[in-house]
Amino acid sequence: MSVAELVVEETDPYLEEDFVGEMLKQLRALDAYDTYEGWSKAKIVDPLVLTKARKQEIPVIGDPDEITLSRVKAYYNAIATSIEKDCGLMAVPMINITHEGFGRALVMVGKLVVVDKTLRDIHRFGFPSLKKMCEQSDKLIEKAKGLIEKYNEAAND
Amino acid sequence: MSVAELVVEETDPYLEEDFVGEMLKQLRALDAYDTYEGWSKAKIVDPLVLTKARKQEIPVIGDPDEITLSRVKAYYNAIATSIEKDCGLMAVPMINITHEGFGRALVMVGKLVVVDKTLRDIHRFGFPSLKKMCEQSDKLIEKAKGLIEKYNEAAND
């Protein structure tokens, strides 16, 4: 299978999920040159899906390029806005990635760190399928909501 | 006055302050080439003091160089280790600076953000005097301790 071929089908039901909607919005927000103009949803989110075949074509060790970095940013922006929508409090993402592709992603709500992910091999950033992306993201968002409930005063500070 | 001339006196009583000790340790930790070998305390911390005269010699707009960035890192490392010493919990600094010298510095304890500073004009990073550096740092550390007490459960998470 060629990397250029799309792996996300135009009829993938997960394209209608809230999180994918948020992800599309964030990807478009970072698309300064309107590359996505006229593209279908499936085509825009397609590079986020790293099937086994695609993964094999990416070297194990490598530096992330600007496009990959902007996808990682879009992803954590989408996580933050999803949390914000859910809890009604401002959620701020902060990402640190070294040029070797290692780092850390945070989302803060008030004085609370609600998402804290170690990033590695960021040049291979992606999800096995759109379904997996939604499931993993929902888990992060649910966990964040739990923390906001538990430490509500710090989240409101 | 020349920039090369030291402004911190060898007899400055603030050289014996806890925070300056922490700062010296962190500056040395980032000194990979042993530049500071044989230097006095005053000489090592001297570049952190930006008197009015020194500030005037730095352009208002500019990109921070590597040495300035490493001083900013050393500073927030020193803030983090000071907090850690005080509260007995791990304190993790995280700094994001764009190449234009704008950004954000955090210190986290558990799930709590205990220091959150907006950084700007980082190429002019410094303090009017060693005394001022100690006072401002103590204020940050005290505020962090207050938050750790207030949201103790989140800080221990």
List strands and helices in order, with pairings.
Two copies of one chain form a homodimer.
Chain A: H1 18-29, H2 41-45, H3 52-56, H4 66-87, E1 91-97, E2 103-109, E3 112-119, H5 130-150, H6 152-155
Antiparallel strand pairs in A: 1-2, 2-3
Helix pairs in contact in A: 1-4, 4-5
Notes on the structure:
Two copies of one chain form a homodimer. With 157 residues, chain A is α+β, with helices and mostly antiparallel strands. Chain A has helices at residues 18-29, 41-45, 52-56, 66-87, 130-150, 152-155, and strands at residues 91-97, 103-109, 112-119. The longest helix of chain A is centred in the middle third of the chain and has 22 residues, at 66-87. Chain A is globular and about 50 Å long. The mean pLDDT of chain A is 93. The A-B interface holds A 94-96, 104, 106, 108, 111-114, 116, 147, 150-151, 153-154, 157 and B 94-96, 104, 106, 108, 111-114, 116, 147, 150-151, 153-154, 157.
